Every structure is written in C-alpha cells, then in structure tokens.
TrEMBL record:
InterPro entries: CblAdoTrfase-like, CblAdoTrfase-like_sf, PduO-typ. Residues 3-173 form the Cobalamin adenosyltransferase-like domain. It catalyses: 2 cob(II)yrinate a,c diamide + reduced [electron-transfer flavoprotein] + 2 ATP = 2 adenosylcob(III)yrinate a,c-diamide + 2 triphosphate + oxidized [electron-transfer flavoprotein] + 3 H(+); 2 cob(II)alamin + reduced [electron-transfer flavoprotein] + 2 ATP = 2 adenosylcob(III)alamin + 2 triphosphate + oxidized [electron-transfer flavoprotein] + 3 H(+). Its EC number is 2.5.1.17. Signal peptide: none annotated. It is an enzyme of class 2 (transferase). Keywords: ATP-binding, Cobalamin biosynthesis, Nucleotide-binding, Transferase. Pfam families: Cob_adeno_trans. This is Corrinoid adenosyltransferase.
Length: 191
C-alpha cells in the first residue's frame, strides 16, 4: 500500500464515501483532532503506569478510531444505494459511555475529594494526561460545531465529553500512584 497519493497536494482530501473537501473543513478538523488525541493517549500508555490503565487506554484508542471513522464519513453517503451502511463497524453506544463512567467511579473511590481546582502538572505522565484532556475538549468543541451543521450519532458527543472527564480523573489517579503533588489553585484575593 502506497502512503502517498498526491491527491491532497491542492489542499483537499476525501471523506469516507469519496466526497472531496478542503483540508480545513470542520469535519476534517474534527476527526484530525480525534487522531491527535489518540496519539496523546498512546504516549500516556507508553509511560510506566499500571496495566489496567494501559488496557483501558488501548480500548479507548480503538473506540477513537471508530469516532474518527464516523466523523470522516460523508453524511450524504452513509447509506449505499442497496441500503447497506457504508461503515460496516460497531458504533459508539451507551455501554461505551457507561464504561468510562464506571472506570471513573472506581478511580474516584481511591482518591481524596476535590476541594479546589488543580493546576496541571506534578509529573510528566500526569501532564500528558492533562494535555490529552485539553485536546479532548478541543475535539469536543469541534465535533459539537460539526454536529450543529451535519448531525451524527449523539453517542459520539457523549463519549468525547465523558472521555475528557475520564482523562482528568486518570491524571488525579496517576498523581496518587506516582506520589506527585496535586497543587491546588488558590485564587489571589483582590486588593
């Protein structure tokens, strides 16, 4: 398989289904940001963290490929002329969202309650989680903009939203596991 096709040399790319759009199209920006997020999750998974978190991140990465495929599909070409779906893959569903919620609930049981906002940092691995969380929030902003113009499955938006929450809780758990300090944000008093 050749990696380069030269078809994008003029600033366009093809959606799944064949339609060509500008590389700065909101749809491209949406699934491109999901791809960026997936790369950050790979970096977190490559750190010295517990096996359960690594396995969870691998599962999430596979789900993000599904999210990317959904976002990369031309909505006008979702269904073939014969009535079949163009994407012959399992979709994001409520169980996927609930899985993230259960993971967060388990981690939260072992964490002290939050009383303040927390400054990102404390350990490189924790910082990677916070970067991934903010990339996830950007992906969510882009996806919601796309959704307003070209709706897609609501579960995708729920999954992205819950994933950013998961990454925040994972950052807190890894802080605890790595004995990193959580620095609370204490606003300065107004003079």
């Amino acid at each position: 398989m050749k990696i380069y096709t030269k078809t994008g040399d003029k600033g366009t790319t093809a959606l799944f289904g064949g339609k060509r759009v500008s590389k700065h199209n909101i749809r491209i920006d949406s699934y491109g940001t999901i791809d960026e997020l997936n790369s950050w999750l790979g970096l977190i998974r490559d750190q010295n963290i517990d096996e359960h978190s690594k396995n969870t991140l691998t599962l999430i990465q596979t789900k993000l490929f599904t999210v990317g495929a959904i976002l990369a599909t031309d909505p006008e070409k979702m269904v073939k002329k014969n009535g079949e779906q163009i994407l012959n893959i399992a979709r994001i569903n409520e169980n996927d969202v609930e899985y993230l919620e259960k993971e967060m609930d388990c981690m939260n049981e072992a964490l002290p309650p939050m009383t303040n906002f927390i400054l990102p940092g404390g350990h490189t691995t924790v910082s990677y989680c916070h970067i991934a969380r903010t990339v996830c929030r950007r992906a969510e902003r882009l996806a919601t903009h796309l959704y307003e113009n070209e709706p897609f499955d609501d579960n995708v938006l729920s999954y992205i939203n819950r994933l950013s929450d998961y990454l925040f809780v994972l950052a807190r758990m890894l802080s605890k596991d790595l004995n990193a300090s959580e620095i609370k944000w204490i606003p300065e008093k107004k003079d």
